[in-house]
Amino acid sequence: MKKIVILISGRGSNMEALIAARDAGNLPVNLAAVISNRPDAKGLETAAKAGIATHYIDHKAFAGREAFDAALAECIDGFVPDLVVLAGFMRILSEGFVRHYEGRLMNIHPSLLPSFPGLHTHQRALEEGVRIHGCTVHFVTPTLDHGPVIIQAAVPVLDGDDEGALSARVLRQEHLIYPQAVRWFAEGRLTLDGARVRLSAELDDRAAFISPLLR
Ligand code: GAR
Question: Is 109 designated active site?
Fold first, then answer.
């Protein structure tokens, strides 16, 4: 079974979706540890209650990004994970860190990348007046919120939406696509072909996440 380390910074609802999928028997992985850069991250409690090892490494205790990233990598590598999952981990990672985990570092971002990298994605989508918004799971490269896309889910932007309504609609999709992406990785179905991610067989899986918008 593939071993996974999850990195969080706060609420941890995407982490919870992964735990729930595992508990439901839909995600055959070993969730080895949850690590936060914030000692007060709510998700740490949730992970501990689920019986998962938790750690925090406070970035404020380090002189710079490289020193923090080195300590973080040391902690992660202690678990010898096959995959590191960023689930609301709100830190920019150094190039050395990202290269160390090349092909085994995944992130979820609350927009249809490459639109709206960075922060406040829902507010910016509303300000731009886009009619379709969504979320993306991708392999991480040194450029922020960038890298080969594994899966995306789209939602409509409705008249009368505010940031809360739109972010809640997107978050429901995040909780579906992240377990799906990790499952594909665990099953060994994801391969990198240049900048593109190929999914072996059963391509219908991906279509399933396009259709809700069309229904
Ligand atoms: C999620 O919406 C995730 O996509 C976003 O932070 C939120 C974390 O929520 N991540 C980023 O913006 C990364 N660039 P959660 O802690 O409840 O999973």
Answer: yes
